[in-house]
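Hey team,

Filing this mostly as a record. A colleague (T.K.) asked me to run one chain through the structure pipeline before their review meeting, and I want the input and output archived in the tracker in case anyone asks later how it was produced. No errors, nothing strange. Just documentation.

Input sequence:
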Amino acid sequence: MTKGEKAFRTIGEVAAALDVPQHVLRFWEARIGEVRPLRTKQGQRRYRPEDVELLGGIRVLLHVHGYSIRGVRRLLRDKGITHVRAAAGGAASARPEAPSEAPQAAVDAQTFDLNHLSAGARAALVSALTDRATCRRLAAVAIQLTNDMEIAA
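Output structure:
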């Protein structure tokens, strides 16, 4: 039995849907004032569909676009909740601009010349690098290859 679109979600359901641990959602609630789930009499969090959309946008901004918590708060203040919610949907009109303080990994990634790749290969690479599970598998393969090369040398 599945819940309807407009049903309230538990913290476990939201964490699973967004692929983040529950403590991360609690941290975002504490640090980002716009995240305010409803509470039951027992104190359990219940997330409305709009809360889940907002959290999805926050996740994309933090994990994909490299924003800091401060940067997300600034976006919320300057552009509003609707803008951050839209980031989860990937709407081109609501695509956030690059963060002012780019993380070092993003700066390093920009130094690679990917022009020799076809458009499809570039899109597949970007898609793989924005998926957490795929990144973990790629890292595991790279570590294994490095270990194999050290053993062979």
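Quick notes for T.K.: Strands lie at 38-39, 45-46. The two ends are 56 Å apart (CA to CA).
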